[in-house]
């Protein structure tokens, strides 16, 4: 069978975007969508050799998009994190980098007509119910095809997209703090207990002090191979405590997001450059599926930003003292393996967070008719 797809780079991810009408003839349920995408990406093979997957967690992503002109947003999208060496497709989370690409796709494909000046695309994530918006410069109503925007984690240029997460909490579990606590002690295997802040913001996430997890964030070049079993065990425990799965269910790899945090300090980035302590407010390293994220996922950046605003959280306890804070917005500078990612935490008149915004970039890479090979059953 053939499946029409549009290939985009959004931020530091690559995403295949599919129109829902192109998917419908081949898959009429979420389970069928999982099978279709696993076959299209060649997910069962760790190299994804016989499919269009990129072989890494940040390049093995997809979204199915449906225009909703009479709905609460301009479009709905279902995000899929496709397995690598595993024919599973997780539909339980969101991806801000892919949302960045979707905003550009919406303008370039005509879902949202370009306006004179800027064009705002409103997007509803069907996985979580979260509403995002992407704003793109469309001077004189012209549709951009290239741009000079760059984000930490890549030297590639793209069309600038201002991405906002609106009221980005409780979309998966119903609460910003699924356990009701800003800090918990959670089991992480072999009798180990770790301090953790578990938030549902952008995506469900569990954030752990780096020193407790045995991670030295003075360098972000290592593979975290020694700490991976501990972090995976912590994610499994957090998934139960946050109500993301039942004890009989297998742990997921995509959610909750799991990461380690430390106070600002000089560190070596993934490319070998030195990031100075005065350039950031918090150091963070996240896992993406079962490997360290090369930068930080945008949903994880939102989770860190909301956690930073909670007195008593693991993140807030590591922030430098602020002499003054803008009452209308606050910038949080997050030190990541790719450099410093800045989020803007916008609050209302009551001091409550209403929006988290980031500056991103996207570019259209290709359009293709994908020949999807059905998975073959293994025989002796």
Give an account of the 3D structure:
With 380 residues, the chain is α+β, with helices and mostly antiparallel strands. The chain folds into 2 domains: 2-168 and 363-371, Diaminopimelate Epimerase, Chain A, domain 1, CATH 3.10.310; 184-347, Diaminopimelate Epimerase, Chain A, domain 1 (Roll). 14% of the residues lie in helices and 35% in strands. It is built from 5 helices and 19 strands. The strands form 2 sheets. An 8-stranded mixed beta barrel has the order 1-2-3-4-6-7-8-19. A two-stranded antiparallel ribbon has the order 13-14. The longest helix is centred in the N-terminal third of the chain and has 14 residues, at 96-109. The chain is globular and about 50 Å long. The two termini are 27 Å apart. The model is unreliable at 324-328 (pLDDT under 50).
């Amino acid at each position: 069978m053939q499946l029409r797809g549009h290939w985009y780079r959004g931020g530091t991810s690559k995403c295949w975007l599919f129109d829902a009408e192109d998917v419908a003839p081949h898959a009429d349920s979420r389970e069928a969508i999982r099978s279709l995408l696993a076959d299209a990406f060649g997910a069962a093979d760790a190299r994804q050799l016989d499919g269009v997957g990129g072989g890494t967690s940040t390049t093995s992503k997809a979204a199915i998009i449906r225009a909703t002109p009479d709905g609460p947003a301009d479009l709905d999208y279902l995000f899929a994190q496709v397995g690598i060496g595993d024919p599973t497709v997780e539909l339980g989370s969101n991806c801000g980098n892919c949302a960045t690409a979707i905003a550009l796709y919406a303008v370039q494909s005509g879902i949202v007509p370009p306006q004179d000046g800027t064009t705002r695309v409103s997007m509803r994530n069907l996985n979580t119910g979260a509403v995002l918006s992407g704003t793109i410069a469309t001077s004189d109503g012209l549709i951009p095809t290239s741009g000079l925007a760059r984000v930490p984690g890549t030297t590639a240029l793209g069309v600038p997209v201002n991405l906002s997460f609106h009221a980005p909490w409780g979309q998966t579990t119903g609460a910003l703090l699924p356990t009701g606590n800003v800090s918990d002690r959670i089991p992480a295997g072999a009798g180990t207990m770790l301090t953790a802040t578990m938030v549902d913001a952008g995506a469900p996430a569990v954030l752990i002090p780096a020193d407790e997890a045995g991670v030295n964030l003075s360098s972000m070049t290592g593979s975290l191979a020694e700490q991976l079993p501990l972090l995976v065990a912590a994610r499994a425990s957090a998934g139960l405590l946050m109500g993301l799965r039942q004890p009989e269910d297998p742990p997921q790899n995509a959610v909750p997001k799991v990461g380690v945090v430390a106070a600002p300090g000089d560190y070596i980035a993934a490319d070998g450059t030195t990031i100075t302590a005065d350039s950031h407010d918090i150091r963070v390293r996240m896992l993406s599926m079962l490997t360290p994220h090369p930068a930080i996922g945008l949903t994880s950046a939102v989770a860190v930003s909301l956690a930073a605003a909670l007195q008593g959280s693991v993140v807030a306890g590591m922030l430098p003292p602020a002499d003054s804070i803008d009452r209308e917005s606050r910038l949080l500078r997050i030190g990541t393996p790719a450099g410093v990612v800045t989020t803007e935490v916008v609050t209302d008149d009551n001091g409550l967070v209403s929006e988290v915004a980031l500056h991103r970039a996207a570019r259209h890479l290709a359009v293709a008719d994908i020949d999807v090979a059905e998975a073959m059953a293994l025989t002796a």
